[in-house]
Write a structure and sequence with these properties.
heterodimer; A: 79 residues; alpha+beta; Mth169, Chain: A; 3-stranded antiparallel β-sheet; 3 strands; elongated; B: 9-stranded mixed β-sheet; two-stranded antiparallel ribbon
Chain lengths: 79, 219
């Protein structure tokens, strides 16, 4: 089973990458209200059901994939 | 004299500079490989040099903080053995939870390579620093902006865990922080490179005091 891990910078932490991308887009006249850059990690997990896959993915994510001081994460099951 | 363990990860690149600085200051360096385990009683101290461990993948220092050697290093830290992390070494110690906070991308988005005046806020019992003294050390980093929750930062100052601050904040670090210590004060980390300022031809010798201070403590 595949589980996607979406890691995003927390709102109160300056997102340097997002700011740079937003600036460039606006410079080219693109209409947008904001832009944030995070990362997406795809885990392939051996599990008998969705619950087990998500539980294992959560353990892995909290082990090293995100840093709670500056990031938040969301898991999504990939069909 | 017990040796000072110099920990090498894949991508560490300031290891030989540390070796030279330690030797020249009368200390006995010894390589420690990132896959090794050791007994903390066999070492006087440890240094995690700068570099780009694991190519800075995921987050700077994140993957190195899970390397096998970190288990022994954490035991050493818990037993009061002095540990110093410089640049990438500082990032690794933060990711490992041995130091508070985290280092994120510089505010200006650029890698900065320059000499910076830094001020000692609180002295470290092993690696030195005299409160209020200002010294010059080189920095060379893209991710050196120190970050921590605001309430926690105040606590760091109150508990005398802030070691060095920048006089002219180059990277957007919270409260100009350049280096911090743990509660016990035996684990310390800083972004500037003392090992790049140990001979006159390097431009400054103020980095020597870090290693000379350790020598005094372990003799």
């Amino acid at each position: 089973m595949k589980v996607g891990v979406r890691v995003m910078p927390k709102k109160d932490v300056l997102d340097s990458q997002g700011r740079a991308v937003e600036k460039t887009l606006k410079h080219h006249g693109k209409q947008l209200l904001g832009c944030r850059v995070g990362k997406f990690i795809e885990l392939e997990i051996d599990a008998k059901d969705k619950e087990e896959a998500l539980r294992k993915a959560q353990e892995i994510t909290e082990f090293v994939l995100y840093n709670p001081l500056i990031e938040s994460y969301e898991l999504e099951l990939q069909e | 004299m017990k040796p000072v363990g110099v920990i090498r990860f894949l991508g560490t690149n300031c290891d030989r500079d540390i070796w030279q600085a330690l030797q020249d200051c009368g200390l006995k360096p010894k390589w420690v490989w990132f896959q090794d385990q050791f007994h903390w009683k066999d070492y006087a101290a440890f240094i995690l040099p700068g570099g780009f461990s694991y190519g800075d993948y995921l987050r700077c220092g994140a993957l190195a903080s899970k390397a096998p050697v970190m288990k022994s290093l954490t035991e050493a830290a818990c037993h009061g053995v002095p540990v110093l992390g410089i640049c990438n070494g500082f990032q690794i110690l933060c990711e490992a939870g041995l130091l508070p906070g985290v280092l994120v991308q510089n505010q200006g988005l650029r890698f900065i390579d320059s000499w910076e005046p830094i001020r000692c806020v609180s002295s470290n019992p092993y690696w030195g620093g005299v409160p209020q003294e200002v010294i010059q050390l080189p920095i060379a980093h893209g991710e050196g902006r120190y970050y921590l929750d605001e309430g926690e930062v105040k606590k760091l100052f109150d508990e005398e865990q802030v070691w060095w601050t920048y006089e002219e904040n180059p990277n957007g670090s919270l409260e100009d922080i350049a280096g911090v210590m743990n509660e016990l004060k035996n684990v310390a980390g800083l972004m500037p490179h003392p090992e790049r300022a140990v001979f006159p031809w390097m431009g400054d010798e103020s980095g020597r005091s870090f290693f000379q201070s350790l020598l005094k403590m372990i003799l």
